Amino acid sequence: MENLIGIYRKNQKGFGFVKLENQEEEIFISRDNCMNALNGDTVEIKIIGEKQENPNLRFNQNENLKKQKSGNISDDISKGSKKQEGKIIKIIRHEKDTIVGTFQKNRNFGFVVPDDKNFGTDIFISKNNWGKARNKHKVLVKILKYPERGKNAEGKIIEVLGGVNQAGVDMLSLIKQYELPAEFPEEVVNEAKAFGNKIDNLDIKNRKDLRNDIIFTIDGEDAKDLDDAIHVEKLENGNYKLDVHIADVSYYVREKTELDKEAYLRGTSIYMLGRVIPMLPRELSNGICSLNAGEDRYTLSCSMEITPKAKIVSSDIYKGFIRVTERMSYTDVQKILDRSDKEVLKRYEKYISHFDLMAELATILKNKRQENGYLNLDIPESKITLDINGYAINVEKYQTYFANEIIEQFMLIANETVAEKFYWLQAPFIYRNHEAPDVDKVKELNKMLYNFGYKIKISKEDVIYPTEFSKILEDVKGKDEEKVVSNIILRTLRVAKYEAINKGHFGIASKYYCHFTSPIRRYPDLFIHRIISKYIEEDYMVNDFWKKKYEKRAEKRAENCSERERTATKVEREAEDIKKAEYMENKIGEEYNGIISSVTNFGIFVELDNTIEGLIRYEKLGDEYFIYNEERKEAIGENSHKIYKIGDKVKIRVANANKLLRQIDFEIVE
């Protein structure tokens, strides 16, 4: 068998996995076979064998605990849970030459402990190479020597970010760790400023003038980049007319400009708790592109005529010219729908019927979508409140309303309509694909769902239908285990990605789907806006040479956008983890009620009502062996026969929290 090339993902315990391109299953690499490769390295491997699963393992505070701490048990499990095992024979390329970490100073030398715990080695710093760094400073290190034959990496500190507890250093460390472009180059800002804050009127003759329509934006109170607006009316034939107006960013961000190059480099906006790294400069994102109330703005719009049974009987995509009537918030729209706030009702009295009509249409669309198997994964997001210095002072569930769903349903239907139209035109395009989950992963999911009395049916042909998932999600609504079940289903699903060919979207039970509605913050939307504009301008008579050129561009852009999205997701998740651990550092010793969200070979994860999750290690469960049953995903006390399984309610005490490690540890309160 020929050697294979992939990306090495290292675990902090020493072993790792290699992800091969276009292959779902990863190849296990033991500690002895990793050849000093670091997390993220591109490596060449050869397959050396297969491993059998080992469903039951025992843990206690004695010899097995020592194994657990050393990583041996985890090694056994990881080997057992993967079919193929490999050996790294060559490191083709190191992913990083700079690392962010915490400096630990001795008299004549020091070490930097990387923030990326999977990196695989501390970095030795000689006295000549630590510059102005002080003990417990966050620093950026240039790697001078990579690790070999058991020796640490060596490096030179090239930037001191600040003290570990200094305000803002945690988020700055993430920016440096992921090499995010925190500032815009001067030439990019100058291009953005050149547009001013008023539209230029040059393109009005090519656009539909909708400035007399009653049009709303509905967003969160803090939103500044408003890229979608809506208009709904009831037609005489009983159907609904829905207009979704999207900021025409492509009119301003033209190909081959500095603005476009920078937007492509960034791929997406990143939201880091109090700090945004936007895709476009604020002169565009908050200014001329943002659909601000009372301002004339250019749009790319999608109009749909929809029956009371949610069927689209006609649609049109065109260039528009709008003036938003009112900038609404989700909370105010919900108050209007609930008739719960007299002051708000009085302020928007003349528009109440418009919001009622929106709710009516959104309900019709949602019901139809659920019939088709739409996975309504109602997993609450975390709302993390920071003080003026950026420290976490509260963590709670983010409150959403039906008003949020109105916008969600309208954006979904617009995205589908646009995707279907351009699919049948055989246009070069970027789709948002979400493939059906892997059958083996669904079988694993069924082991966990067993605890709740649920099961996903798999057809004889190994076909899985979205309705199988949606039935369970509907049944679990309002129950204590709703969040846990939703989360384990989410972990089973594949990750959605951008591709130049259409494969449909399993999660929303749709045959055609794209991202059309957020061109201010997502590059795929901006890219397809250019294609749509070209088709409109050419009256849909686009030549084959142009199509072929853009087919190649679509493939390249889709791949880059998927990669940038993965990075953004990691950064946003880590920013949350840091702030949650920071918040819990002040809660050590406090007790909470929680629910077991996961049972693993090294401990039990418990999630609290405020969305914070912590780990109870097996050594915190008393002086007895705990047998981990891989098949049933549960831990059983050998003497007490006490069983811990997913969905169990438990009372915990906060044992430890460390924002540097991004870890929260709990212990059971008996």
Number of domains: 5
| Terminus-to-terminus distance | 54 Å
Q: Point out poorly predicted stretches.
A: 60-82
The helix-and-strand class reads: alpha+beta
What best-fitting shape do the alpha-carbon axes yield? globular
Q: SSE layout and pairings?
A:
Layout: E1 4-10, E2 16-20, E3 27-29, E4 42-50, E5 56-59, H1 63-70, H2 72-81, E6 84-93, E7 98-105, E8 109-114, E9 123-126, E10 137-145, E11 153-163, H3 169-177, H4 186-193, E12 208-209, E13 216-219, E14 228-234, E15 240-247, H5 258-266, E16 270-271, E17 276-277, H6 282-288, E18 296-306, E19 312-323, E20 326-329, H7 330-338, H8 342-347, H9 352-371, E21 382-386, E22 392-397, H10 402-424, E23 431-433, H11 439-449, H12 466-475, H13 482-492, E24 497-499, H14 523-537, H15 544-584, E25 591-599, E26 603-608, E27 613-617, E28 626-629, E29 634-637, E30 643-645, E31 649-658, E32 663-668
Parallel strand pairs: 3-6, 9-11, 12-19, 13-20
Antiparallel strand pairs: 1-2, 1-4, 2-3, 4-6, 5-28, 7-8, 7-10, 8-9, 10-11, 14-15, 15-18, 16-17, 18-19, 21-22, 23-24, 25-26, 25-31, 26-27, 28-29, 29-30, 31-32
